[in-house]
Amino acid sequence: MAGSSTEEKYNEIAKPALLEAIHTDDVVRFREEFLALHPYDQASFFSDIEDEDRRKVYLYLSPAEMAELFENIGLEKDQVQVYVSEMDPTYAADMFANMYADDAVDVLNELEKDQVTRFLNIMDQDAASEIKDLLHYEEYTAGSIMTTEYISIAANQTVRSAMYILKSEAPTAETIYYVYVVDEDEKLVGVISLRDLIISDDDTMISDIMYDRIVSVKVTEDQEQVARMMKDYDFLALPVVDDAVRLVGIITVDDIIDVLEEEASDDYSKLAAVTDMDQLDMTPFSAAKKRLPWLVILLFLGMMTASLIGVFEETLEQVAILAIFIPLIAGMAGNSGTQALAVAVRGIATGEVQKESVKKLIYREAGTGLITGISCGIIVMVLVSIWHNNVYLGILVGASIMGALFVATLAGSFVPLIMHRYKIDPAVASGPFITTINDLISILIYFGLATVFMNHLL
User: Tell me, how does this one assemble (predicted)?
Assistant: First the structure.
């Protein structure tokens, strides 16, 4: 409720006042009202206004103030292109130079390479060099999301001298809650919290109070694994090292929140057989372009199902009533497979499913499929036998349900595990794919049993 009332206050008071200041060219009033807002509300206002109003905002705010806004706004590629194209190139370059290096890299990665090169050439060279160092890391790795604005100290200095360094470097550091200890070769040898620095005696040596059992990640580590480590250890920041264990950057919790959102969105997209989540402002052509390849693949898989039914055309002609149970059996198999898929993909994503627990997962899902299959099979057998006054038809449909649920549950858990083993994103084993594959399996089981039962059905 508190969040809702705050948002209402912003919408009802701040936004109209800011728009009025823009439309009347009242720069002083705009700056007073705008800079008093929380950074999130600033970003929300900027995203909501028209392009003509945004162009005035660029005139009213300094590149440093716009940099802070950009650090708090979730930008899609199309938005980045629009906003940056509205700015004067020098203004945009100064804005990037004033952003934390990792945030600047996130935005620049959404631009064309020639645009990035142009901005780096007119940017302050120190800032450009720092950004270039981060741009060369492979996307979705620890190196690509880390920041180089951290504070490091030496083990052979006192708390007094460390506090002096902390005070002098804090304004440009992204976080000061952890201070990292390095040796003369810049190798990471320890970490100390701000709290420990504050409560320690000024003459205490850093080596005596630092924590030397350090948890760190390599620059090449996958960002999803980094996010899992941050969650497991409840860190606010995580040091990043190279192959020589030299400290090269840190990853902060705000970047990990963005990673978790990105990974969740990516997995959900794949589970829905969409390469990327559709944005509300995406054109119908763009949305169709992203969805069509998956639908075409599923179309061909569906044609395989139709062809399989065609193989049993003679069986259907002799016992036409079999056709009415096809959607029931295929649907139940699809539902069961999707449930098992969700459990397996979640287990892989959270790290719960490791090499030693794969067999345990398969055995559990096999048992679950068997129990649910027998239960649903018995229920359907009784209902169909009474409905059509035919025990053999009831046994056929019940046995088909039992077999389909058992196999579909195994497939739903087994397919993503195989993909994960071969370094393929298990979310690619999406719901539509599992459903279509299980359609094939369930139809084969159903009509295979029907052929065996044919004499009794006739």
Answer: Homodimer.
